[in-house]
Amino acid sequence: MINNKNKKIIISIDGYSSSGKSSLSKQLAEHFKYYYINTGDMYRGITLLAIRQKMFNSDLWNVTNFIHYLNNIHFTFKWNKKINEIETFLNNENIKNQIKSRQVTEKVSLLASIPEIREKLNVIQKKLVSIYKNGLLIEGRDIGTTIFPQAKIKIFMKGSTEIRSFRRYKELKKKGEKISYEKVKQNILYRDMLDISRKYSPLQKPIQNCIEIDNTYLSINKQFNIILQFIKNKLYT
Length: 237
Prior knowledge:
The chain is an alpha/beta fold. It has a single domain (10-217), classed as P-loop containing nucleotide triphosphate hydrolases (Rossmann fold, 3-Layer(aba) Sandwich), CATH 3.40.50.300. Helix content is 47%, strand content 17%. It is built from ten helices and eight strands. It has a five-stranded parallel beta sheet. A three-stranded antiparallel beta sheet has the order 3-4-5, covered by helices on one side. The protein starts with 9 loop residues before the first strand and ends with a helix.
């Protein structure tokens, strides 16, 4: 347990694309035995749905024509012991592998910048705290500012564009995708621009109860230890 009253809390992790949010989230969730949810996978799921509905095949993108598809969607998250990871289900379909495709990655920030879509998902995300009561660690772009501003612990992550692009490039190459580093970097810069500049719930550091981590030159272990010390200080002082 992470406090002397054995009370489970909300931990939010926000930050830039490819800043290591997921790796840290999984470490902390495993350490504290908390339920981990990546809200980015929800936006990726909606993007996958939009691709399947061929909403990007026309220059006449129309949110009104797409938004009704979201009225009856539901997300569930299940732990797969065999691969030691959380799997995301959209309407009972396991979409873990599909939402990591380059096509989804290149479209997700554009779709996530649409206010009507964010409003729909925000409602779903805010209900998670009543579902997962035994400690929730939730990752995204606006968790500590919009979804759970009451979170006891807030973490905001960033890193240099070059480092984040190289991390993403290595990840894609490992998967066998043929893509250049420059192409990956352009996509990272584009996603940063959309995340920061959107009018509705932009990416920004929470004001209260937050630690900012620039992991450009930090190892995974060093970063983890810094966060653990921050949590300890926050909860026991």
